[in-house]
Specification:
Radius of gyration: 11 Å
Low-confidence stretches: none
Mean pLDDT: 91
Helix content: 25-40%
Structural class: alpha+beta
Strand order of the largest sheet: 4-3-5
Oligomer: single chain
Distance between the termini: 22 Å
Number of helices: 3
Strand content: 15-25%
Number of strands: 5
CATH architecture: 2-Layer Sandwich
Largest sheet: 3 strands, antiparallel
Number of domains: 1
CATH class: Alpha Beta
Length: about 80
């Protein structure tokens, strides 16, 4: 079980999207769920991504400031995925 950084609900890994911070410090959406890096999980809804953006849930998980462009890129990838 994993906790969504947007809404805080606990769900299984398969029901969620994984966002990772790579060793290079990049924040990317992990479509496979198997890439190396520090992971944070979001429900597969756009609302949870917006909640995480507003509450800075990803920033707390990764202990770093996340620029707005990264959230914009995640939203694009989220919609496509």
């Amino acid at each position: 079980m994993r906790q969504c950084v947007g809404c805080g609900e606990m769900k299984s890994k398969k029901e969620m999207m994984r966002v990772i911070k790579t060793a290079e410090g990049q924040i990317v959406l992990d479509m496979t769920g198997k890439q190396n890096g520090r992971g944070a999980y979001l429900c597969k809804t756009e609302q949870c991504l917006k909640k995480a953006r507003k509450s800075r849930g990803l920033e707390r998980s990764f202990k770093m400031r996340i620029p707005e462009e990264i959230y914009d890129n995640l939203e694009e990838e989220f919609i496509e995925g």
